[in-house]
Amino acid sequence: MNKHIPSALIAALAMVISGCGGGSGGGSSDVTATDQSPPTAINQTPANDPGQQPSSGESETIDTPDSPEPSNPVNTPQTDPATPNPDQPIEDTQNSEPANEDTQNSEPANEDTQNSEPANEDTQDSEPANEDTQDSEPVNEDTQDSESDEPALDPVAEQTTYLVTVRNFWGVEDFPQDFPDQAHLSLWGGATHNEAVSFWSVGEPPSRGIEDMAEAGLIDILLFDEVAPAIEQGSAGSFIEIRLFTEPAIDGEPGLLEFEVTVTRTHPLVSMVSMLGPSPDWFVGVDSLSLLGASDDSSGAPAEWIPTLTVGSPLYDGGSKSDIIPIMGGPDIIPPDPIGLVAYDAATGVYLPSDTPQIVTELQFTRIR
Ligand SMILES: [Ca+2]
């Protein structure tokens, strides 16, 4: 091509190009900013797809069924991170989980999160991009502006999405008894739903799905034998299916996990659970947590979405295993006892059944769109 283009024009083009580059690192920062901004959108979308958006219920159903269907039970046992071999490192377990991988493949955001510290990375990545952009290019500012505009969310929207930030305080410093090397919170399973259905409650015996989750960290029975029928009946709106582990607290810093949940006015409640791993049948989670505020009956005004809600989860005892140390397995309780509480007693240095909730995990719901 050079032969057909006057050298002066080439020089001019070169100047233009270098000028656009913005000097040292300008070109690369442009690229970086461009690359990163799309990822953000991608991350958010995938996080939703997994099972939050009722509007996309069909796709969710399709995705979910693919892995969990009867044929998948095979995956389930394999998926079980902690059951077969508590000594197995978390990472190895995840990698060997076909079901998880499939899910993850469709969820770029989740993969990033898993590999290292998701919450931190996502936040950090997007921030640096913005900063670079700000320094030189208006393009970035536009991006920011649009983001800052988003906060104007309709308080009575039909549907809204929350960023869920899980903070896991379970760590060797505060829970020294037999604290396992591979400590983690396992997969999160649950649903968005309404008052017509409950998937678990303290004082009630665990369902098969809850028992499997609490004992083995698996969520397929819960999702496909319990949530799926509820969705068909209309009492549940969507699956909550997060096939990611959360690290324990380390050096005073809680393990972090972030994902999104989309709720609707017809299904504003969230129930989701995750096994404390390894443990006999202990788990954390929320039961029928409403993200919709109380309605004002006197004025007749519609209830508004809660902007930010933080709830602590105590350590729940699933009632189906009798051991009370953080080790997988142990004797079964048949039929299972009602779901209760267990707490680490610092005075005696052991876990004990408890009537007092001891918060081990915090879930923060922040409305983002
Ligand atoms: Ca138990």
Q: Mind sketching the topology for me?
A:
Blueprint (H helix, E strand, L loop, with lengths): L6 H15 L4 H23 L8 H10 L8 H5 L10 H6 L2 H8 L2 H8 L2 H19 L1 H12 L9 E10 L15 E10 L14 H9 L3 H14 L2 E7 L12 E10 L4 E9 L4 E9 L17 E7 L1 E2 L22 E6 L4 E5 L4 E9 L2
Antiparallel strand pairs: 1-4, 1-11, 2-3, 2-5, 5-6, 6-8, 7-11, 8-9, 9-10
Helix pairs in contact: 2-8, 7-8, 8-9, 10-11
Structural class: alpha+beta
CATH class categorisation of the largest domain:
Mainly Beta
Bound molecules: calcium ion
The helix-strand sequence is HHHHHHHHHEEHHEEEEEEEEE
Tally of helical runs? 11
- Uncertain runs are 1-146
User: For the terminal residues, how far apart are their CA atoms?
Assistant: 49 Å
Average pLDDT, all residues: 73
The CATH architecture of the largest domain comes to Sandwich
The biggest sheet, with number of strands, parallel, antiparallel or mixed sense and barrel status, is:
7 strands, antiparallel
Number of self-contained structural domains:
2
CATH superfamily of the largest domain: F-spondin domain
Total number of β-strand segments? 11
Oligomer: single chain
In CATH terms, what is the fold-level topology of the largest domain?
A: Immunoglobulin-like
Q: Strand order of the main beta sheet, please?
A: 3-2-5-6-8-9-10
Residues in helices, as a percent range: 25-40%
